[in-house]
């Protein structure tokens, strides 16, 4: 090679990528939703063919409201109530991410939402992790190896967060890497779940918190100061604490702390636009935060609802902000530094997979 490979969707697919914020129930294949719905006798789907169903999910999620966006999950969760459904969705998730060049993925879901067919919380986790392992094996056989780690989410409007935290610790070292809370932010602050976060800290277990997406700075402040989160799920509203000054951007107390402590931001550009967290990709604060040296990471959030992949997200950012391969490599290494796996495993993926992969693309 005589120079860098041109940045295209196809070439970005060849780049090794790491995703920290991807929802299992937000990444199903439309065809799989249809097949699982038929098998389960679920007749509430808004479309009867894969193409129309995929378009419906995308259009319904484009409401500009987090609450409306979350309503689309009723259909995907409905078809993930059996061992077969959970294993298939997890297996295909691993395969799809690997086919897009993702070498490390943390995929989260809420076990409490998958109990309608009589499964226990432990059985839900067991079958989901089995699906991830099957997907990893298939991806390796296809020449696209991937490591998938499961994060367990508690719904912030419910009262099972301590129970899910205990479930997380119980399955630690068996495929579960950490804990999270998710759902509508307004009216459900992170501090409602202090018992769960205290339990995680007492057990030296990892956790991230959805904060600063649909709600502003107070959500981030609570997640960091009261709950002690290691990462911020989205965290896009950290810009509420950044103002314009005569010499450039001025960071407030919370923004300074997040940057100084290298608390990663799990930014999801397309999703952030869909939920109304930001008005458009070109107005997304990703570039501002990257230039201010926050630890920014690129994520998909919900691949089905956003009709996206990690490669598409990276291409959008590159086209909007002029990023090159070295920038995409930095964002990927940011993610790997922040992963909920042991340091030697992070280092191995950075040194043996990510850096060599980008070196080829840089020429």
Automatic annotation (TrEMBL):
Marked site: Important for catalytic activity: 234
UniProt: substrate binding residues: 23, 25, 183
UniProt-listed InterPro entries: A_deaminase, A_deaminase_dom, Ado/ade_deaminase, Metal_Hydrolase
Claim: Electron transport is one of the keywords in the record: no
Enzyme class: hydrolase
Cofactor, how bound (note): Binds 1 zinc ion per subunit.
Domain Adenosine deaminase stretches: 16-355
Alphabetized UniProt keyword annotations: Hydrolase, Metal-binding, Nucleotide metabolism, Zinc
Catalytic function, reaction form: adenosine + H2O + H(+) = inosine + NH4(+); 2'-deoxyadenosine + H2O + H(+) = 2'-deoxyinosine + NH4(+)
Protein residues bound to Zn(2+): 21, 23, 210, 301
Keyword Nucleus: no
EC number(s) per entry: 3.5.4.4
Function of the protein: Catalyzes the hydrolytic deamination of adenosine and 2-deoxyadenosine.
Family: Belongs to the metallo-dependent hydrolases superfamily. Adenosine and AMP deaminases family. Adenosine deaminase subfamily.
Protein name as catalogued: Adenosine deaminase
Lineage of origin: Bacteria, Bacillati, Actinomycetota, Actinomycetes, Mycobacteriales
């Amino acid at each position: 090679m005589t120079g860098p490979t041109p940045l295209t969707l196809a070439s970005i697919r060849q780049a090794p990528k790491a995703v920290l914020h991807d929802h299992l129930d937000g990444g199903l294949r439309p065809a799989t939703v249809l097949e699982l719905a038929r098998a389960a006798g679920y007749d509430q789907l808004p479309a009867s063919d894969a193409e129309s169903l995929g378009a419906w999910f995308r259009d319904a999620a484009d409401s500009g409201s987090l609450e409306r966006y979350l309503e689309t999950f009723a259909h995907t969760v409905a078809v993930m109530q059996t061992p077969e459904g959970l294993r298939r969705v997890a297996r295909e998730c691993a395969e799809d991410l690997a086919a897009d060049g993702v070498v490390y993925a943390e995929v989260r879901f809420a076990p409490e939402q998958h109990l309608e067919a009589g499964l226990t919380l432990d059985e839900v986790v067991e079958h989901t992790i089995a699906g991830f392992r099957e997907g990893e094996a298939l991806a390796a056989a296809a020449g696209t190896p991937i490591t998938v780690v499961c994060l367990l989410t508690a719904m912030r409007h419910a009262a099972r967060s301590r129970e899910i935290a205990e479930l997380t610790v119980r399955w630690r070292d068996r495929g579960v890497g950490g804990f999270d809370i998710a759902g509508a932010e307004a009216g459900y602050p992170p501090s409602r779940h202090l018992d769960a976060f205290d339990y995680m800290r007492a057990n030296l277990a990892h956790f991230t918190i959805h904060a600063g997406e649909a709600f502003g700075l107070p959500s981030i402040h609570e997640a960091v100061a009261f709950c002690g989160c290691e990462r911020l799920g989205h965290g896009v509203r950290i810009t509420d604490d950044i103002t314009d000054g005569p010499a450039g951007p001025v960071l407030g107390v919370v923004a300074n702390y997040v940057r100084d402590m290298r608390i990663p931001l799990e930014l999801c550009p397309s999703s952030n636009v869909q939920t109304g967290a930001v008005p458009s990709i070109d107005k997304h604060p990703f570039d501002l935060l990257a230039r201010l040296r926050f630890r920014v990471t690129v994520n998909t959030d919900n691949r089905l609802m956003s009709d996206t992949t990690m490669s598409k997200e990276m291409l959008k950012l590159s086209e909007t902000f002029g990023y090159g391969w070295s920038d995409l490599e930095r964002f990927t290494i940011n993610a790997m530094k922040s992963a909920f796996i042991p340091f030697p495993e992070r280092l191995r993926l950075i040194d043996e997979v990510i850096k060599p992969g980008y070196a080829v693309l840089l020429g």
